[in-house]
Amino acid sequence: MVRVIRALPTHADLPFAFRIPHICYTVIMCDTHRENPLNPQEPIRRARRFLDRHYTMPITIDQLSGEVGLSPYYFIRRFRSVYRQTPHQYLMQRRIARAKELLRTTDLSITEICAAVGFESLGSFSALFSKIAGLSPTAYRLSVRPTTKPAYIPLCVRLLHGIEDPSEL
């Protein structure tokens, strides 16, 4: 959306040939963070994508609202109306989801996982993890580890080879 804007008094002393590019630059820069009237959720979606890409780093509301060009309080209200949670709640859930994935798939220590997902304190990570997952990180890791069950051996094969109990293998 291009808007016609008036040249500011500071532009008056510039020759006309230099005013046009400067005005065009001003219009482009002013409209980059402006909401699209056809898609009013776009700034909020951009903020969510930013959180998804940078969840491992410390992020402030001022930084996040600045990324999308909205005031911090208005941004929080809009984010909550679209996603039914605050940006901080979304960020914490994103970090905990990644921590769960790392607990399931890697052998990293709890402290390494804590740092890898963006928490600065092991205590706050463990407390929040327990609150959201219902288990401590160590208990969660033990509960999701695959247990080795004996392979199913059909009865006819067991009888043929004289295997009484499949766990004997």
Essential attributes:
single chain; 169 residues; mainly alpha; 60% helix; 0% strand
Could you give a short description of this structure?
This protein is an all-alpha fold and 169 residues long. It is built from 9 helices and no strands. Helix content is 60%, strand content 0%.
Describe this structure in words.
The protein is 60% helix and 0% strand. It is mainly alpha-helical. Helix 2 (42-53) packs across helix 3.
The total of helices stands at 9
Roughly how much helix do the residues carry, as a percent range?
Answer: 55-70%
Secondary-structure element sequence?
HHHHHHHHH
> What does the radius of gyration come to?
28 Å
What's the overall average pLDDT, rounded?
Answer: 80
| Number of DSSP-assigned strands | 0
Give the structural class: mainly alpha
Sheet with the most strands, sense and barrel status:
none
Spatial gap, N to C terminus: 72 Å
Shape, please? elongated
pLDDT below 50 for ≥5 consecutive residues: which ranges?
1-8, 22-33
Please indicate the percent range of residues in DSSP E strands (runs of 2 or more): under 5%
Break the fold down into its secondary structure elements and pairings.
Elements: H1 16-31, H2 42-53, H3 61-68, H4 72-83, H5 87-105, H6 110-116, H7 122-133, H8 137-144, H9 155-161
